[in-house]
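Lab intake sheet, docking and co-folding queue.

SAMPLE TYPE: protein with bound small molecule
LIGAND NAME: 2-acetamido-2-deoxy-beta-D-glucopyranose
LIGAND FORMAT: SMILES
REQUESTED OUTPUT: full 3D complex as structure tokens
PRIORITY: normal
SUBMITTED BY: R.K., bench team

The fields below were copied directly from the construct record.
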Amino acid sequence: MSYTFVCFCLWLLDGVSGVYSDETVISVMEGDSITLNTDVTELQKDDQILWTFRLNSSETRIAEIYKQIVSIYDNKENNERFRGRLKIDEQTGSLTITNINKLHSGLYKLQIINGGVKHKSFSLAVYALLTVPVISDFLQNPSVSERSSEQNCSLLCSAVNVSAVTLSWYKGNSLLSSISVSDLSISLSLPLELECLDDSYSCVVAYSFINRTTHLNTTDLCQTCPDGQSESVKHLMIAVITLLLLLLVISASAVMMFNRRRRKQSAQETRTTVEEVDYTDAIITTNRAQDSETNGQNQTEYSEVSFR
Ligand SMILES: *[C@@H]1O[C@H](CO)[C@@H](O)[C@H](O)[C@H]1NC(C)=O
Ligand SMILES: *[C@@H]1O[C@H](CO)[C@@H](O)[C@H](O)[C@H]1NC(C)=O
Ligand SMILES: *[C@@H]1O[C@H](CO)[C@@H](O)[C@H](O)[C@H]1NC(C)=O
Ligand SMILES: *[C@@H]1O[C@H](CO)[C@@H](O)[C@H](O)[C@H]1NC(C)=O
Ligand SMILES: *[C@@H]1O[C@H](CO)[C@@H](O)[C@H](O)[C@H]1NC(C)=O
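RESULT FIELD (auto-filled):
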């Protein structure tokens, strides 16, 4: 009971303020179709579904299921915009609008009456058809064959008559540059300068919910990069050099290990000799120290060091 009461309050509130609780915003493009879901899995015999459309302050009933009878109101005077475009699912009550145009922007409200009353609303925003961007030669340069190989190509990506879009240049998946417009409908252009072309460049025009892409063809407008093949040659050379270095390291360590083993074998024989040499060194140091210390101070200390 209390649930019904709360919903009723919200329903009233909506009528006053124009703000609806639980409103789903849906963006679509002209020509698209959209299904507004009731989230009912299966309507019961006595369930009632009511769809209304509101634009400005006028609200009209557009579809209904009542006592299992489906009614579509698309031929009333102010529902002309929906003629032949509405379909309601008898099982779920979900409403499908096909071949959408700008006139279908607005608020769609749903009432589900099945013991209680449930409300949902969908705010439909219809965007102009998005056509693929056009890539053209910015400077109207001479054709590729007449162009000197040093010359860059200057490209321009354009989208005509657009609003609320972002226009971007991509190389592979990384963004090179982009430009955005808000609401007003204008023509957008974004330049790109290239020394040469491989086939990974693309221009994307995008709404927040959908985009259109034009890939830059290798054959038109720009010289193909001469190092398209040498790139793989470069990779091959790096691989070969790495392999050589690896071999070098392996053989070097093999030599070192061999030497170490030999040294170990002869270590015992030479140990005594090494000790003698060390001892001799120490004596030499002592002598030198004694030579340089003409003042004759701290001589005992040096001696101590030398015989350690
Ligand atoms: C809704 O209001 C706008 C201006 O606020 C007006 O241009 C438009 O014609 C109105 N639409 C309807 C169906 O009354
Ligand atoms: C741009 O859009 C307006 C209306 O939105 C239309 O009248 C005009 O023909 C369009 N121009 C182009 C070049 O598509
Ligand atoms: C060609 O384009 C590159 C950047 O892609 C730029 O650094 C270079 O200065 C340009 N060269 C000429 C001659 O415009
Ligand atoms: C374009 O749309 C697809 C999905 O439709 C998305 O995966 C991709 O990231 C979008 N690209 C851009 C640049 O927005
Ligand atoms: C790209 O080039 C191919 C052939 O080289 C051509 O069939 C295709 O139409 C071109 N696409 C564009 C967008 O220019």
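REVIEWER NOTE: The domain at 2-127 is CATH 2.60.40.10 (Immunoglobulin-like).
SIGN-OFF: pending second check by T.M.
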